[in-house]
Amino acid sequence: MKAQVEESAAIDKSKAAPATTKEKVWNEIVSWFWVILAFLVIEGTLVQARVIPSGSMEDTVLIGDHLIVSRMGYDAGIPFTNIHVPLWRKPKRQQIIVFEAPLEDQGNPDFIKRCMGLPGDHLKIVAGQVYVNGVRLNEPYVKHSADYETASVENFPERAEELKESMKDRPEWLDELRQDTVNGELVVPPGKYFMMGDNRDNSNDGRFWGFVPRENIIGTPVMIYMSIDAPESVWNSSFGIQRFQTYASAIIHPGMVRWRRLGHIF
């Protein structure tokens, strides 16, 4: 009986023995491995964070809005690389989409616009009104400038030739546009989408550089988790001293935060 008690005490003592330095290091490595793996899975297939750097989607999305973007079903990839594959979901007409712009010379930057044309759609803009397959779209979200009805950009593709100088980012688009225009309407090719900004007269969108291939689609915004009123230049650059100062200023001066926009669901 005494031997059993002594043996049990020895076992308990061994269980309580402190971990060695090697074991602590290994446990830390394993813990960080799972944290990094979870981040890669979430960032690569589920959600991403994006900051809006321009006013092309005003007043739907403002400069300085911080968005949670859902990639679920749209795209999967390896974070911090160009490796990604399209999944099963397809953009819907008038849905807000985050995508890689077909601007190779600029490194295919991420843009956020509204999907206006699906594969096979016949699209035209007449005096600022968008028609798809002969039906005028209801667009309460659109923001126009003064006298927009007579602007060439608001009569598309009928007056697309007048936009030639604005197509310098992708000059070959004008030839593609001529080829894909039938009876005054732009016909969206298979596997491609036509994107436009809500700030219709101040948006660098598909009218100036063309269609977005399906494989360029990243996802769709879900929620605004932060919104800071700061100049466009702060958000156009990579995370640096200027952006750090902006975040610090928002903490000191909470009036910079657009509190009413926080938690907005798309």
How would you portray this structure in words?
The chain has 266 residues and is an alpha+beta fold. Strand 10 (181-182) and strand 11 (185-187) form a beta hairpin. The longest helix has 26 residues, at 21-46. The chain contains six helices and 14 strands. It has a seven-stranded antiparallel sheet with strand order 1-2-14-5-6-12-13. A five-stranded antiparallel sheet has the order 9-8-7-11-10. The relative contact order is 0.16. It is globular and about 80 Å long. It has helices spanning 2-15, 21-46, 173-180, 206-209, 232-236, 241-252, and strands spanning 47-51, 65-70, 75-77, 84-86, 96-100, 110-117, 122-126, 129-132, 135-136, 181-182, 185-187, 192-196, 212-213, 217-227. It has a domain at 2-43.
Whole-Å distance between the termini?
71 Å
- The topology string of helices and strands comes to HHEEEEEEEEEHEEEHEEHH
Widest sheet: strand ordering: 1-2-14-5-6-12-13
**SS strand fraction:** 15-25%
Mean pLDDT: 86
Show unreliable segments: 5-14, 37-41
Q: How big is the Rg? A: 26 Å
What is the count of DSSP helices, taking H or I runs of 4+ residues? Answer: 6
Q: Structural class from helices and strands? A: alpha+beta
Largest sheet: 7 strands, antiparallel
DSSP helix fraction: 25-40%
- The total count of strands amounts to 14
Global shape: globular
